[in-house]
């Protein structure tokens, strides 16, 4: 049995194939000269022949089932690879501050760590949802633009099509640094625009240490 299994193990995708013990893909007709293949009462080897045919039918069915399963698995893997979405960006690679601003503005993150699917635009700061599904989104805001004793505010929100999903606000007058982080899950649709908005009266500061970040990835698709 071990020799037989090694002989028929290789899988070739495509139409269903026939496997047998005589010649791969070919079933030989009964031999009229051999009475064991024509007369069931002639000898006990007819029982062995019937068992052989039964085993061949079982192997054919099993091999074709494995081929179908392999084809489905490969198709699923291909869909996963084609629909991967992930991005992670930072504000800048050098010393830079934004604000304080009089009206809310979109934050444009220019330092890209990863952008699988090219859905984040570093010119506009907009992440455009390429596939409907549940997404993990996160952003961190940081500022050290103030001075001891002066009012320092770091406040921003993550927005979907201009509507806030979550907001961060850190207003503290006792030190020179403020920082806050938010992580959330959101069900998004194709074409939704996700942005980080800096609020009025607030500012952000960053450098090569990347204190201000914005990230997201597709957890699972819903279509």
From TrEMBL:
<dbReference type="GO" id="GO:0099558">
    <property type="term" value="P:maintenance of synapse structure"/>
</dbReference>
<dbReference type="InterPro" id="IPR008983">
    <property type="entry name" value="Tumour_necrosis_fac-like_dom"/>
</dbReference>
<dbReference type="Pfam" id="PF00386">
    <property type="entry name" value="C1q"/>
</dbReference>
<dbReference type="InterPro" id="IPR001073">
    <property type="entry name" value="C1q_dom"/>
</dbReference>
<protein>
    <submittedName>
        <fullName>Complement C1q-like protein 4</fullName>
    </submittedName>
</protein>
<keyword id="KW-0732">Signal</keyword>
<dbReference type="InterPro" id="IPR050822">
    <property type="entry name" value="Cerebellin_Synaptic_Org"/>
</dbReference>
<keyword id="KW-0964">Secreted</keyword>
<dbReference type="GO" id="GO:0045202">
    <property type="term" value="C:synapse"/>
</dbReference>
<dbReference type="GO" id="GO:0005576">
    <property type="term" value="C:extracellular region"/>
</dbReference>
<feature type="domain" description="C1q">
    <location>
        <begin position="80"/>
        <end position="223"/>
    </location>
</feature>
